[in-house]
Request: fold
Amino acid sequence: MHKLTEVSLGGQLNLAPIPANAKRILDIGTGTGVWAIDAVDNVEEDWTYHQPFDYIHCRMMGNAIRDWPRLNRQCFEHTRPGGWVEFIDLDLTWTSPDGSLEESHASKKFNNEFIRASREANIESCPGLYLEGWMNDAGFKDVKAEKFVWPVGTWPKDKHLKEVGAWNFLQIMEGLEGFTYALFTRNLGMSKAEVEVICANIRKEIKNPAMHAMFHLHVAYGQKPEA
Reply:
C-alpha cells in the first residue's frame, strides 16, 4: 500500500507544503514504519502530548477510526499555529468509466456488502469522500483536496495509471482475504468457506481485462491558523 500510494502521488510521500525546518512530525497509522518519526498508540484515546507538532500525517485509517470529526479536532489541537495536517485515504466505492463493472458482478456485490457491513459496525470505509469537510469543520484554513484514480488492473491506456493499476491489482490479489475474513464472518455471519468462494470469484473477475474497475484515493491537507 505504501508503494501504491507513492506511485499514485507521482513519487511523493505527501502533498502538504511541509517546511524544511519542521522538527516535530506525527504519523497516525504507522504501518511498517517507513514514514513515522513519532506515532500514536491509540489514536482514538485522548492525546497526551505536551508539545504541538509541525506536521501530522494520517494515511489509510479507514476501517479503523470510528469518530473522524474527533480525530480531526485532536489533530487541530495538537498542531502548532502555522503547522500542517494531511489526511490520505480511500473512497472504496468500485465503479467503472464505461459501465463494464455491473451490479451483477461478484466484485461489485462484494464491494457493496463490504461498505454496508463496515457502516453497520460504525466504521466508515470510504472516509476519502469526507476528509475536506472534516478538516474545514475542525478549523483548518486553506484546505486543499485532490482525488486520484486507482484502477484495478492494467487496463488504462495512460502509462501512469497503468502502473498504479498494476500495484493496486497486486495488493488486492495478495490481501483480499485479509481485508475480508473478519468483517464478513463476524458482521455478516459468513463461514470461512463462503468468504473463500467470494474471493475466488473476485480474483477471476479482476483478471479479465474487459472489466475496467476502479476506485479513488483522496488527499486533503490544511494549515492551522496563526495565533
